[in-house]
Task: inverse folding
């Protein structure tokens, strides 16, 4: 696997403005994509329960009979609906782009 520089983008869609440039890493595309996904999850988690995002506590309050599996599935579906992430190989043309 050849290592290259990858520009990592991550964020939340909708009113959150979408994915934004996070950082550039010297790695493989596969590892950069995993890093981008983790970054998007971290951003999602930082807004948990705010602005219409899923909240475990709120859901349990409304539906106390839900089990852990159902709650995990609901959270994953909500997260997948909001997160955005991708990577772009860094080139001389995009090397200094901040978006």
Result:
């Amino acid at each position: 696997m050849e290592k290259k520089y990858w520009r990592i983008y991550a964020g939340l869609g909708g009113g959150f403005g979408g994915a934004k440039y996070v950082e550039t890493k010297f790695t493989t595309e596969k590892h950069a994509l995993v890093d981008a996904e983790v970054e998007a999850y971290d951003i999602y988690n930082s807004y948990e329960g705010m602005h219409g995002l899923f909240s475990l506590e709120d859901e349990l309050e409304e539906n106390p009979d839900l089990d852990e599996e159902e709650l995990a599935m609901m959270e994953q579906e909500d997260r997948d609906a909001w997160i955005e992430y991708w990577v772009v190989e860094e080139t001389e043309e995009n090397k200094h782009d901040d978006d």
